[in-house]
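Entry type: protein chain
Record version: 2
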Amino acid sequence: DMAKTMKLLGNASFSNEKITAGENSAPGVISLITSCEDEKIKEKIQLNQDSNILLIGCEGDTDQTMYQKLISQ
């Protein structure tokens, strides 16, 4: 879920630093998490501990009120 992923990134539990990611930035992270949890996908795309992944987020908290509402859920 979008809000849960935004909160995960904002709490620095997904990376070494806090990431302020808006609703349009979360889908890439959701896709990566889903891929990591599915052995067939990991095998098909050769995703492993040696993989380098680049995710690009196109926004932060552009609407600060909405961002706070979403991560407060």
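Comment: The chain has a mean pLDDT of 85.
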